[in-house]
Design brief:
Blueprint: E1 2-6, H1 10-22, E2 26-30, H2 34-44, H3 51-54, E3 59-62, H4 69-77, E4 85-88, H5 95-99, E5 107-112, E6 122-128, H6 134-145, E7 148-152, H7 158-166, H8 168-185, H9 190-211, H10 215-221, H11 228-238, H12 241-262
Parallel strand pairs: 1-2, 1-3, 3-4, 4-5, 6-7
Antiparallel strand pairs: 5-6
Helix pairs in contact: 7-12, 8-9
The chain binds NADP nicotinamide-adenine-dinucleotide phosphate (NAP).
Residues 6-12, 30-33, 36, 63-66, 68, 89-91, 112-115, 166 line the site of NADP nicotinamide-adenine-dinucleotide phosphate.
Length: 263
Amino acid sequence: MTIGFIGLGNMGLAMLRGIKEKRQDKLVYAVKTQQSARRLEMELGFGPSPLEEVYESDVIFLAVKPVNYPYFLKELSGVLRKEQIIVTMAPGFSLEQVQSFFMEEVKVLRSMPATPAQIGMSVSGLCFSDSLTKTEKDRLRDIFNSFGWSHDMDESLMEAFGSFCGVMPAFLMNLIEAMADQAVAWGIPRKQAYLLAGQIMQGSGALLLETGLHPAQLKDQVTSPGGTTIEGLLALEEWGGARAMQKAMQASYAKSIAMGENF
Ligand SMILES: NC(=O)c1ccc[n+]([C@@H]2O[C@H](COP(=O)([O-])OP(=O)(O)OC[C@H]3O[C@@H](n4cnc5c(N)ncnc54)[C@H](OP(=O)(O)O)[C@@H]3O)[C@@H](O)[C@H]2O)c1
């Protein structure tokens, strides 16, 4: 099939890279500036196409900023054929809002991917319009699974999903920076500090998934009585570490709801 990307910035490129590596689809994309066009052609080995060509794709990823969604949906409403599928990824933009641009029932996948897509490790939330058949849904899941893991979500949980998995790469990078700064203060070289932080996050995630144990059990395994870990955990609690994460997720969630109301 032909998969088209309207916009190919951070998120679009991450997904396209994953698809290009794992699948045989024809890929087309359009960007706005000559500068991006030149850079992407160098990087991908193929250049952008006119928007009209991208509009012809079997599956069209709307990978522009949310503010550009109304413009492109209006454009698509004039040219889209009934078998084509639109994939959205903007927080707060509902299936109903997409449908409101079209006279006929349209096939839409509302998604929430994440930037680890570029190394095949996105955790993506998927919410399908009723107009998609089972086969089409399976094909779309296959596309998303080519750059990570995908999870079907009820639309009422898409904001929550985005404020969890969509934002977490940035939150975790922020934590990594904080951890590395402390490590550097102790004398560990910065480059090594980032390596250690990345590896321990990867290791802890894998431990949770592979053992299937409850997080509290895994925590208890490393907290010896009177030891260093419990001392650190108590300080983390005192300084609101876990609560700060929940507050950050809540702030993203509130913003996501507000964005949806503003479309
Ligand atoms: N970044 C994330 O972690 C993340 C996570 C989940 C969902 N999302 C969603 O993904 C979408 C894209 O976000 P992003 O971070 O990838 O944005 P971005 O890096 O700013 O990329 C936007 C892309 O849209 C292109 N564009 C803008 N106007 C255009 C036009 N008139 N015609 C053709 N292309 C045009 C830009 O082209 P130029 O480069 O030429 O300007 C650029 O390639 C958003 O809806 C965002 O909410 C992002």
